Amino acid sequence: MEWDIYLSGEIHTDWRQKIIDGCREHNLPVAFSSPVTDHESSDGAGDMLGEEEKDYWRDHKSAKVNAIRTKTLIENCDVAIIRFGDKYKQWNAAFDAGYCTAQGTPYITLHGEDLIHPLKEVDATALAWATTPEQVVDILKYVIKEQ
Amino acid sequence: MEWDIYLSGEIHTDWRQKIIDGCREHNLPVAFSSPVTDHESSDGAGDMLGEEEKDYWRDHKSAKVNAIRTKTLIENCDVAIIRFGDKYKQWNAAFDAGYCTAQGTPYITLHGEDLIHPLKEVDATALAWATTPEQVVDILKYVIKEQ
Amino acid sequence: MEWDIYLSGEIHTDWRQKIIDGCREHNLPVAFSSPVTDHESSDGAGDMLGEEEKDYWRDHKSAKVNAIRTKTLIENCDVAIIRFGDKYKQWNAAFDAGYCTAQGTPYITLHGEDLIHPLKEVDATALAWATTPEQVVDILKYVIKEQ
Amino acid sequence: MEWDIYLSGEIHTDWRQKIIDGCREHNLPVAFSSPVTDHESSDGAGDMLGEEEKDYWRDHKSAKVNAIRTKTLIENCDVAIIRFGDKYKQWNAAFDAGYCTAQGTPYITLHGEDLIHPLKEVDATALAWATTPEQVVDILKYVIKEQ
Amino acid sequence: MEWDIYLSGEIHTDWRQKIIDGCREHNLPVAFSSPVTDHESSDGAGDMLGEEEKDYWRDHKSAKVNAIRTKTLIENCDVAIIRFGDKYKQWNAAFDAGYCTAQGTPYITLHGEDLIHPLKEVDATALAWATTPEQVVDILKYVIKEQ
Amino acid sequence: MEWDIYLSGEIHTDWRQKIIDGCREHNLPVAFSSPVTDHESSDGAGDMLGEEEKDYWRDHKSAKVNAIRTKTLIENCDVAIIRFGDKYKQWNAAFDAGYCTAQGTPYITLHGEDLIHPLKEVDATALAWATTPEQVVDILKYVIKEQ
Amino acid sequence: MEWDIYLSGEIHTDWRQKIIDGCREHNLPVAFSSPVTDHESSDGAGDMLGEEEKDYWRDHKSAKVNAIRTKTLIENCDVAIIRFGDKYKQWNAAFDAGYCTAQGTPYITLHGEDLIHPLKEVDATALAWATTPEQVVDILKYVIKEQ
Amino acid sequence: MEWDIYLSGEIHTDWRQKIIDGCREHNLPVAFSSPVTDHESSDGAGDMLGEEEKDYWRDHKSAKVNAIRTKTLIENCDVAIIRFGDKYKQWNAAFDAGYCTAQGTPYITLHGEDLIHPLKEVDATALAWATTPEQVVDILKYVIKEQ
């Protein structure tokens, strides 16, 4: 069995690459997927359908185009890793956690100690909370390869 | 038919009361429910099961006790109103939006124009975005009573 | 048991009233619901959330506000009656038929003989095709009251 | 991951081929499926089970045989493209949109500006509205290949 | 809690009445429902939508009209009692058993010892097999009223 | 896409082989599955778990062991062909039809004209009724290969 | 809203009554249900369908008759309280916890500190762990009545 | 079709290996999966996320990390084999049986005669009860390879 892992959340640090590299080192049978992580591309995803004057509709169109991708990948994944960084609102990451919870997909949160309190509802239905990408790799290795 | 409306999100302003009052004025057949909105009670919901030394586990226990309530009410509601205010992370509100989306429950977001961009994924699967409690009342009145 | 009947489709003739009156005459234990049937109100349902310059977004906002109502009522109903008249595209009625089919809700179509061919996919998953409101009343009476 | 794309709706222009060709050019990992697009074959799909004198039953049998195919393909697809052209009722396309909505399958509509108003309910639950096959290809390319 | 009991199957003996009477004697909080049990009415259920020359289509229309009732009642019931008598094919009763199994509704079969072998698949997913209406009443009394 | 076809019902004639051979001739991308069709093996499926004195329990154990196979295959199939022959009760075939209906799996019935009336409920939710294995092959060929 | 609470597990102490009494004192809008808690009645639930010589089949019949009740009540409940005592295997209580988890029903476990280790999987998907009936009452009061 | 078999329960005897070896001998197209069966690794699964002072939280963290694996494997499997040995509480095995029942996954129990009574609820929804690994192999061989 190949495990499909969805990497949700923060797009401004290299946590995804660290997890991917770590899993490769251990030859884990995993396939990774992510939202579009290029900020500008993501914000302008709807522009190819015509420009909008109002910010709301530009954001709306782009968010929906991105949802074609993210909804499909989240529904297909076996496990999601949901990362919260230091900056920005990152409501889309919390949204993904709620989505995973409702459909029963196991997820692991990845965030620092300073975010424990505001993320308590998100952590409540997570199956693990990690503080480093290395810990995520350790868990995946254990979950997938341990006998 | 009585409509069950769940009021999710911000707990520091009186938006809930305004919506409840507005719906009463119009005699709408609605029943409202909410998470526990007393901040201290909510944070200490798990304390009755024994104290914890670590912050993480205190938060964890409380968040789970609160989830007994919120999960049940969200799954029972016909429509959710999800409010984002100016302060705090409010990840639980975005979590609820993701939960509603996955289970197909219609929801209306309530937030100011300044939050359009960070909430674009949350708004993308909402059925309406309102900026004032009065607008929410207007929508509910239309949705429930219009012929 | 009270049966919830959703009356979908055409809004320019009095077919809804005929079915409602007919069921009352027979004292059937039914509760009826419908989309908003006032054309102008329905088209402007989103205006209370602010005006739009582009037709597409005005329609979009209104259609979503209406969906809060129609989605909830269709998911709650036991049987849907889906009416196609002589005029207009009426794609919303066909949309409702597809929605009912996917969620397994029984529905009865109500349309003239001239629409048999273009409605063949819609009729294929209907449990009955009626040509008059009186026939719909007859079926409901039989289905609900016969011993 | 290979994406399964279902191409629903109008059968009288070459929009399917344009999308298929466009995706091939970009080497997208997609598999396309469609309803039977030969009009006569589709209308006579039930004839192999015996002839019918009444038009209604001939249509009914054919529509059901076609449904074996379309239902299976729609339920298996990751994304549906639903095309509305200038002519005919095309209720089957709107039916497919309702079906996709109820089962939570993302879909993109493809139609001209003149159909905005009658398709507003169908567009309300779409994740994108395109006016040309080229735009559909652009979206699929972005959704599937963007990093 | 009131228990909804659906009485499926044979329509030529008075087993339904015996169960209903027995449950009344014990004041069980139950509501019973059944398919239409008048043979002629049931066979002609589709006639009110117009006559058919071919037997197949007359049966087809009637069976579908009856399905509006039976599908709704089976999906709403808490427990089904499925009765097989000595005569006729009674495929509709076995069909109901399969339907209940797939949707996870508990059912009790009611049939004589002579039918054990041909009903083995139907009994395999039943939660009880009774040979008399009195036994069914005993089970319902136990299930609903025992402390 | 490879289509999984489940062949349910009568085990005393060679209808399965005819369908399999016919599909091979046309190189259809199909995989067939069936219940155990050796009558004695099927009746004694539970014997390997110890002998039973009572007929009921022998049948019960065997039916459940067979259900491990049939339930799995029916849930995995894309289309079921359900065959009713001239003899025996064949309640398991009707049970499978009810199961398919409840889970939304398309099925085709295969039976003679003499069984139209007793099978009307089973045919009501079938997507096609065939009288010969050749017709089933024709339908599958059309459904899977037609452009 | 009235909350349906299912009280699963140990039947040899008065924990159920304590919870029921405690909730009554606080006038909580709750309805309680339980499996049959009379040990002998429960073990002999199948006897009314005829006696069995083999212990396995007597247990099997009784367990299935009891399942008509327990399955229905567990699927209907909003929250389950699952109690593990000092004695016996109590596998049915763990079974109920697995059932609740799979269908997404919130549950609270009630057991002593000495059972922490063997119940770790059961507690992992619980939303709270209580050690006394009074704590359960406290949680229910908080969950249902807190503002 | 390859059958996915999940081997749940007791980890102190070699029953898994016997079943795996037996299936290999018969060249059955099966893939096996299991929870982590190394007792110490399993108990310490959460340690890689940081140590805990309280036993409860150490167990809790480990049980959740293990659940990432077991939940995924149980949801993916076609058949589960659930083994109860002579020692320990083994509540996780009964939990898995309840989980399988709620999601409709067929399972076979494997236990001695002395456990018949306490396991009656677990056996009630099993499709077979075996007393030796050899019997499990026999059933799998029959279910998968018999014609």
Strand content of chain A: 15-25%
| Strand line-up in the sheet with most strands of chain A | 2-1-3-4-5
Distance between the termini of chain A: 15 Å
The outline of chain A comes out as globular
Number of strands of chain A: 5
Average predicted local confidence, pLDDT of chain A: 97
What portion of residues of chain A is helical?
40-55%
Structural class of chain A: alpha/beta
What oligomeric state do the depicted chains represent?
homooctamer
Q: Radius of gyration of chain A over alpha carbons? A: 16 Å
Model regions low in confidence, pLDDT < 50 over at least 5 residues of chain A: none
Considering the chains and any ligands shown, give keywords for the structure.
homooctamer; alpha/beta; 5 strands; globular
